[in-house]
């Protein structure tokens, strides 16, 4: 099982490198990723500072920022919903 997982990992890395080299993506994607990361943190911070729901405080950590980074604004809604229902 470990051999299959290692094979899939190696194959994935080779394919990603091939796409990166053949399409000449460069490092522009890092700039976009950094911008989206900063905007996700600002979005969470705005929800915390706005105080619309006083019992909602979303911590700024990699998990919450990653959620908002991937899902966008609906991710903030998801985190608020989780905070209100679970905690």
Write the layout of secondary structure elements.
Blueprint: H1 2-22, H2 28-50, H3 62-71, H4 73-86
Helix pairs in contact: 2-3, 3-4
Notes on the structure:
The protein has about 90 residues and is an all-alpha fold. It has a domain at about 25-85. The chain has helices at about 1-20, 30-50, 60-70, 75-85. It is elongated, with a radius of gyration of 18 Å.
Give me the number of helical elements: 4
The percent range for strand residues is under 5%
Cα gyration radius (Å):
18 Å
Sheet of most strands? none
- Number of separate strands: 0
Question: Main traits of this protein?
Answer:
mainly alpha, single chain
Summarize the structure.
The chain has helices spanning 2-22, 28-50, 62-71, 73-86.
């Amino acid at each position: 099982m470990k051999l299959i997982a290692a094979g899939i990992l190696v194959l994935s890395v080779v394919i990603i490198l091939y796409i990166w080299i053949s399409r000449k993506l460069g490092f522009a994607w890092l700039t976009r990723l950094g911008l989206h990361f900063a905007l996700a943190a600002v979005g969470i911070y705005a929800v915390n500072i706005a105080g619309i729901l006083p019992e909602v405080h979303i911590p700024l950590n990699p998990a919450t920022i990653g959620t908002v980074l991937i899902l966008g604004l609906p991710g903030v809604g998801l985190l608020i919903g989780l905070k209100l229902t679970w905690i």
